[in-house]
Design brief:
The longest helix is centred in the N-terminal third of the chain and has 20 residues. The strands form four sheets. The chain has a seven-stranded mixed β-sheet, sandwiched between helices. The chain is globular, with a radius of gyration of 27 Å. Among the domains are: 28 residues, no CATH class; 230 residues, Vaccinia Virus protein VP39 (Rossmann fold, 3-Layer(aba) Sandwich), CATH 3.40.50; 86 residues, no CATH class. 36% of the residues lie in helices and 11% in strands. It is built from 18 helices and 13 strands. With 540 residues, it is of the alpha/beta class. The structure holds S-adenosyl-L-homocysteine. S-adenosyl-L-homocysteine binds next to loops.
């Protein structure tokens, strides 16, 4: 994950072998922060003392003589700031004159956020816009997501032109608009859906139809179909590059919050038809209130969330939920102070915590993630640890979203399909096709994690699949001869599907977010190379 070995060792020694990775990460960040803090912030000098603000005012006898001294030694590593309710801290705080009265305070907070973003390598202009649009309360991850979304939209507009009149004959308009809804007078160069990229509705989602004209280059039309997935908010230029290797096809950016209760912003490049798609039924719950009926009685009026953020590969530890509980319990009355509310809400949003008791929040259980993502109950249970399950589910396809795109294949393949499933994970593609009622004849599944392979194999057996499942451990070992042999044995592949690891693309990675050339994300190149092999061997 990119942490210095020395820091990693210290973290494991201090936190113990049982500690979760997130706890170890927190430890490393806290000690780095403390070191940085000590280097940067000096004690106030006597001459500054006149402006010093001592909070809270200590009883006279407790007060050490003013001047160069440390009043609270561990405030940084304990993260109690300049004091929190149960941990008073006698901090001498010397503000520069310009920051003493509002609105200077707001300016300082804004500058600070912008400075952090610039430090992370984002252009100052974009950083400023993000802070202005998202507000001073926004967390850094929210701001970086905003910047990526804005860049993505801009890139998209530059790269993907409207189809020309002569292309129109191949255009696939989805869904077919009623005549009166079609803009006039002539078809051709026009924008049928203005905000589909920023709204992340792709080429339309069930309740938000979108009249898209899609023109595929000749080489990409028809079988073998392909479907490539990755995180939507990837570093600048990543999707342009992905498209350039996949017939210059425009990515379809979709947020799964149109299909289920959680966000999952993903880009999909595929050559599937986009007409006559249909959603899986039953439709899963799309609001927190529908999805977590048990938590209704505990949900406080000041928590306005109706949907969850993106499900991650790790969940928060017990320390955080206990801390939240203590803070809420220590507030007199039913409604906590605004400060406590803001703190709790920020943590709940970041970690997708839900209310499971009075003043009690908890992270999602794997079975809840399975339900949200559209997998069968207990899909990832058995022979796996909680950590494995969270990781596998955090990386997986959201079934309802992917099935919506694949639904167009149902009519074309009533007798089943041959699938080359690359980076299969826990079998998102297989489960989606199965839930659509498309038989799986031959599936070659390529997946490096043994835990994930076991999950897919067990699902294959539990669901009494009649086809053949071939397992390959490493995509890098696949040769053109192997592809040729499979094609000979099965008579060709109907679909090549997969999403390569997003580790070097995803927003959560602050250590090695180096785009498509990152160690793991570069496996994308194996995806398009294998698709190329399949096309050659199928004479396409
Ligand atoms: N779409 C999948 C998840 C994809 S995540 C799902 O629905 O579950 C990317 C997957 O690629 C991970 O499961 C990871 O274990 C796998 N992977 C990483 N390196 C690989 C390699 N060299 N060969 C095959 N699979 C690999």
């Amino acid at each position: 994950m990119g942490y210095p070995a020395k820091d990693a060792l210290e973290a494991v020694e201090k936190c113990g072998l049982q500690a979760e990775i997130t706890e170890l990460q927190d430890y490393i960040y806290a000690s780095q922060m403390e070191k940085e803090h000590d280097d940067q912030f000096q004690e106030p000098s006597d001459k500054d003392g006149i402006f010093a603000d001592i909070c809270p005012r200590p009883p006279h006898d407790d007060l050490p003589s003013r001047g160069k001294r440390k009043l609270c030694d561990n405030k940084v590593s304990q993260m109690i700031g300049f004091g929190v309710p149960d941990h008073p801290c006698y901090v001498e705080r010397v503000l520069p004159k310009s920051a003493l009265v509002p609105p200077y305070q707001d300016h300082a907070a804004k500058d600070m956020k912008v400075a952090i973003l610039v430090d992370m390598g984002y252009p100052a202009k974009d950083a400023l816009e993000a802070v202005e649009k998202c507000g001073l309360q926004a967390e850094i991850t929210e701001l970086t997501d905003y910047i990526y979304a804005a860049q993505m939209e801009e890139e998209h507009d530059v790269q993907f032109q409207e189809p020309s009149d002569e292309d129109e004959i191949f255009a696939d308009i989805c869904p077919v608009p009623r005549y009166h809804d079609l803009p006039s007078p002539s078809r051709g160069k026009r924008k049928l859906c203005n905000n589909r990229v920023s709204q992340m509705i792709g080429f339309g989602v069930p309740d938000h139809p979108c009249y898209v004209e899609r023109v595929l280059p000749k080489a990409a039309r028809g079988k073998p179909y392909f479907y490539y997935e990755n995180v939507a908010l990837a570093p600048k230029g990543s999707w342009k590059k992905i498209s350039s290797f996949l017939d210059e096809i425009e990515p379809e950016f979709v947020d799964s919050n149109y299909f289920c209760v959680a966000a999952r912003k993903r880009g999909y490049v595929h050559n599937l038809p986009i007409r006559n798609r249909f959603p899986l039924s039953p439709k899963p719950p799309c609001t927190i209130q529908e999805a977590f009926t048990d938590s209704k009685e505990f949900w406080p009026s000041w928590d306005p969330r109706t949907q969850l953020n993106c499900l991650l590969t790790v969940v928060s530890g017990a320390k955080l939920t206990e801390d939240i509980w203590k803070r809420l319990e220590s507030c007199p009355g039913d409604i906590p102070t605004k400060e406590v509310q803001d703190y709790v809400l920020a943590k709940c949003r970041k970690w997708n915590l839900i209310w499971v008791g009075r003043n009690k929040v908890a992270p999602l259980e794997p079975k809840e993630m399975e339900m949200i993502l559209g997998y069968p109950k207990n899909h990832t249970r058995g022979g796996t640890t909680r950590l494995d399950r969270h990781k596998a589910l955090g990386n997986s396809f959201q079934i309802d979203t992917v099935a919506y795109h694949l639904s167009v294949l149902k009519k074309e393949f009533p007798d089943g399909m041959n699938v080359l499933s690359l980076f299969s994970g826990i079998g998102g593609a297989e489960v989606a096709l199965h839930r659509l009622g498309i038989p799986l004849n031959n599936v070659v599944s390529v997946e490096s994690s043994e835990v994930n392979r076991n999950i897919l194999r067990s699902w294959w057996q539990q669901t009494n699949q009649r086809g053949t499942l071939i397992e390959i451990v490493d995509i890098q070992h696949i040769t053109i001869d192997m592809v040729g042999q499979w094609i000979k044995d099965f008579g060709g592949f109907d679909l090549v599907i997969g999403g390569s690891p997003c580790n070097n693309l995803a927003g959560g990675n602050r250590v090695s977010r180096n785009g498509l050339d990152g160690e793991l994300s570069s496996l994308f190149h194996n995806y398009h190379q294998i698709l190329h092999f399949v096309r050659i061997m199928m004479d396409r």
